[in-house]
């Protein structure tokens, strides 16, 4: 990689004094209330991207194992107690799960940190934050309701019910494994559904540990089943199987589109939370220090391996160079290194393939004429570490400004006025999230209304609450997670029309008069 100007060095890599002492986690699949191995006895291992040692191992599910999990979930839905329980009874179980997670935060966070490469401090926050998701879902188990219509005349009463959609396949990614599962599973359970969960083969530990918690909390056999393995042998059958009533997937737009196509053959309901190329739009009158901090946090949190990553900054041309210098200076100070080091803010990239993809995108951007201002290189050390990277002088047409990179890479694009900023923000296939930075409320509302995004932050970034729905426009997905809409997504509406009194005849033969 070459540049006309020298590129400042990123921060030195933090390391711990010695390799972590950790006994590998040996997980099993959970099907119909039983812990089992795969039907052919095959297993796979996961190595830490930061340290290289084996962290965990799991059964490699076969199609027969997936079929068994689907049959168990279907039996539990058609004949088991879960869909028929009172909302308060389902809520009590979900609250017990929340308490079980709270009691296991440290163990789950350590495994998540080792499997993903994210800093332990961030993994701890992710796991502990799941408690709130399960508690909120419990409240919806008691409050989700339909409608009644007493306005249809004196001889008719209309009732609209919400019933569980049925058997749901949940496919979760590697970047926030327990968090994203907790954006799906408790809400499906609150609605009365039964589920089959397929975690990423890179990060299965916390999902399997969660099944231990569900078992202790009293979830009946077959209501939640976990099958571990790769997408073609596990995820694809969930999308294709006629007994699956709904598929909920979080991951790349490419894979989501493929799975959605497979699911459409059986006309099953689909919820897709996919990629993003999320802009932060910066005006000259913003709170400068708050904005710089949020930009650095937004792109480097979780090493940029986040669908909500603030990977584009669309900055007013009058402050573009000042912004570039300030964000480079701040980013150079961000601690990178061993995820178990207490000061690390950016850990390891999840896999060699992912690291190479990120480097390839950086190369492509520089070759197209963008300017590398910071980083852009792999650290010369053991482990999969990448320097925090900043690229300026990008144009909206460049692939680096349009395509999701999923790494610690910030791309800076100048604009001249609000209308152009909105046009640039919308000129991608994605529409997941965005932010606007200005002290002028008119500017903020104009941008918030104009940007195609499921979430728009105003003078902040990456805040989240269980009460607020999350999802995307365009190629960023279909459906919404969180909020009251989350449970509603796992239901079907049923209309019941009740006739009162004598029904008028449609036609009465003359002989019957």
From TrEMBL:
<feature type="domain" description="Aldehyde dehydrogenase">
    <location>
        <begin position="35"/>
        <end position="496"/>
    </location>
</feature>
<dbReference type="GO" id="GO:0016620">
    <property type="term" value="F:oxidoreductase activity, acting on the aldehyde or oxo group of donors, NAD or NADP as acceptor"/>
</dbReference>
<dbReference type="InterPro" id="IPR016161">
    <property type="entry name" value="Ald_DH/histidinol_DH"/>
</dbReference>
<dbReference type="Pfam" id="PF00171">
    <property type="entry name" value="Aldedh"/>
</dbReference>
<dbReference type="InterPro" id="IPR029510">
    <property type="entry name" value="Ald_DH_CS_GLU"/>
</dbReference>
<dbReference type="InterPro" id="IPR015590">
    <property type="entry name" value="Aldehyde_DH_dom"/>
</dbReference>
<keyword id="KW-0560">Oxidoreductase</keyword>
<comment type="similarity">
    <text>Belongs to the aldehyde dehydrogenase family.</text>
</comment>
<protein>
    <submittedName>
        <fullName>Aldehyde dehydrogenase</fullName>
    </submittedName>
</protein>
<dbReference type="InterPro" id="IPR016163">
    <property type="entry name" value="Ald_DH_C"/>
</dbReference>
<dbReference type="InterPro" id="IPR016162">
    <property type="entry name" value="Ald_DH_N"/>
</dbReference>
<feature type="active site">
    <location>
        <position position="273"/>
    </location>
</feature>
